[in-house]
Amino acid sequence: MRTVSLTQLRQNLAAELDSVIDDAEELVVTRSGRHPVVIVPLAEYESMKETEYLLRSPANAEALRRSLAELDRGRAPKSP
């Protein structure tokens, strides 16, 4: 995760945004006296939101945890 100041971002906006996409890496933007923000590729943001949605349901969360545990043990999870 790279960090730039708001001033640096303004000076190199197109290049910085291209870097976020090309490198699939988050960019932290610091702002003097204010909270920083993070710029992420849209696909990554959508993936995070989908994961958040799926984990809201305790049953879904447990099923996902079991599947990941099976993958860690080298076994493919069973399809429903």
From TrEMBL:
<dbReference type="InterPro" id="IPR036165">
    <property type="entry name" value="YefM-like_sf"/>
</dbReference>
<comment type="function">
    <text>Antitoxin component of a type II toxin-antitoxin (TA) system.</text>
</comment>
<protein>
    <recommendedName>
        <fullName>Antitoxin</fullName>
    </recommendedName>
</protein>
<dbReference type="InterPro" id="IPR006442">
    <property type="entry name" value="Antitoxin_Phd/YefM"/>
</dbReference>
<dbReference type="InterPro" id="IPR051405">
    <property type="entry name" value="phD/YefM_antitoxin"/>
</dbReference>
<dbReference type="Pfam" id="PF02604">
    <property type="entry name" value="PhdYeFM_antitox"/>
</dbReference>
<comment type="similarity">
    <text>Belongs to the phD/YefM antitoxin family.</text>
</comment>
